[in-house]
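Structure (tokenized):
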């Protein structure tokens, strides 16, 4: 590959963004590539003689070997026409060395026993992930190559009756506001305890698994998988959640439950109730899931950076770091990630109890990293005499895809589910 660049300077611009000096194993090859790179950056002419002179100036020229080695590189190169193939071979061997090096470092960590097994596992994941990131860095792409992809996407949306660029939440009023659940989006759903944020997330997960036929991964750090399954069953069967908990079921209830179980069995919903999961653990598990469509995490404040809280941690910094890692995870997996979050008690002190962005608990960079921030608010939670009984407000406080605003939803506590409020014309 180096010989191709020396005999044909046009090859330089073809491979400059494909390789780095570290991709070369021999020090002498690295020095030659670095010299050619510097000369290319300053638009200097490149051939065997000019490269030798440049190496002489920067102190990497060896009188005994360098000139002969440069001549040999040009002599053994049959043609510069295959330079991209040569570059691919170099990159492939570099990747194999990186994997071998990471494997050796991981083996050393295990043998030395430096730290607990969870720490070593996380360090191992990071090493492999770092290699993957380096390999997946995209080169710059001309606009004309991107436009066909945009047109194809527009065609798909035109054929789709919902005309949504993302997955449907199952709640049309919210879909219209946030344009559905879009790939690589981090969606923060926040509320005070008891407002129904877990129910909302499960409703959305159920709809994605059902209508989009995608795999949905749900990580619950608070509720057990049996509790989650019970809520999902209640929402799908429309059997009172209280009766499901107590077992006071009628024959018609059992018929509804049987039909719901058949429907739910066809869906691909994965539940994980391990309370010690870190973002790295979740990312690793999700990477192994085929046809992944959505990730739901319940909830942010129960997580810790390494799977557990260490003494002396700056909690606000930890939560900020995790929110950034969640955004990176959404981008890497190329799926929407819904993360639930608690709110501080700041709204309790105001006359208007509706939440604001400043109420985000241990906010740090949460509101910056999230593409969409939604709050849930029910007036009957605070005001018994309200005329909005069982009416929930979904407040879209941040929306990178459109406007912010409030959407009213019907809250059905007996089924732990939300529904869109139809207007009078639709009812008629």
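Design, position by position:
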């Amino acid at each position: 590959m180096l010989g191709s660049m020396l005999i044909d300077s046009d090859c330089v611009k073809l491979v400059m963004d494909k390789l780095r000096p570290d991709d070369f194993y021999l020090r002498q090859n690295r020095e030659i590539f670095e010299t050619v790179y510097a000369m290319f950056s300053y638009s200097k002419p490149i051939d065997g003689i000019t490269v030798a002179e440049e190496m002489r100036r920067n102190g990497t020229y060896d009188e005994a070997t360098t000139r002969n080695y440069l001549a040999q590189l040009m002599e053994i190169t049959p043609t510069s026409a295959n330079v991209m193939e040569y570059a691919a071979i170099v990159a492939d061997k570099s990747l194999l060395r990186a994997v071998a090096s990471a494997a050796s470092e991981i083996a050393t960590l295990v043998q030395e026993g430096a730290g607990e097994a969870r720490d070593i596992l996380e360090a191992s994941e990071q090493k492999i992930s770092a290699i993957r990131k380096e390999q997946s860095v995209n080169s710059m792409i001309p606009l004309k190559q991107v436009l066909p992809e945009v047109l194809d996407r527009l065609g798909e949306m035109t054929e789709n009756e919902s005309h949504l660029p993302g997955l449907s939440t199952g709640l049309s009023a919210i879909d219209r506001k946030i344009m559905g659940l879009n790939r690589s989006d981090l969606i923060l759903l926040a509320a005070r305890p008891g407002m129904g944020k877990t129910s909302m997330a499960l409703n959305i997960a159920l709809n994605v698994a059902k209508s989009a036929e995608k795999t949905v991964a749900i990580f619950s750090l608070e509720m057990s998988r049996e509790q989650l399954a019970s809520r999902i069953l209640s929402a799908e069967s429309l059997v009172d959640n209280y009766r499901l908990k107590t077992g006071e079921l009628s024959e018609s209830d059992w018929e509804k439950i049987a039909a719901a179980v058949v429907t739910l069995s066809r869906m691909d919903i994965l539940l994980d109730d391990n309370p010690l999961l870190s973002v790295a653990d979740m990312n690793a598990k999700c990477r192994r899931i085929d046809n992944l469509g959505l990730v739901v995490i319940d909830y942010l404040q129960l997580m810790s950076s390494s799977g557990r809280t260490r003494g002396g941690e700056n909690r606000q910094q930890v939560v900020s770091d995790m929110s950034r890692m969640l955004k990176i995870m959404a981008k890497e997996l190329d799926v929407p990630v819904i993360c639930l979050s608690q709110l501080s008690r700041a709204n309790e002190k105001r006359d208007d109890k509706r939440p604001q962005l400043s109420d985000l608990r241990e906010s740090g960079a949460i509101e910056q990293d999230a593409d969409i921030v939604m709050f849930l608010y029910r007036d009957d939670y605070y005001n018994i005499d309200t005329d909005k009984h069982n009416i929930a407000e979904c407040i879209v406080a941040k929306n990178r895809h459109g406007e912010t605003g409030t959407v009213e939803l019907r809250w059905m506590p007996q089924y732990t589910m939300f529904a869109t409020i139809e207007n009078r014309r639709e009812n008629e």
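Reviewer-requested clarification: The longest strand covers residues 391-399. The chain has two domains: 1-137, 166-427.
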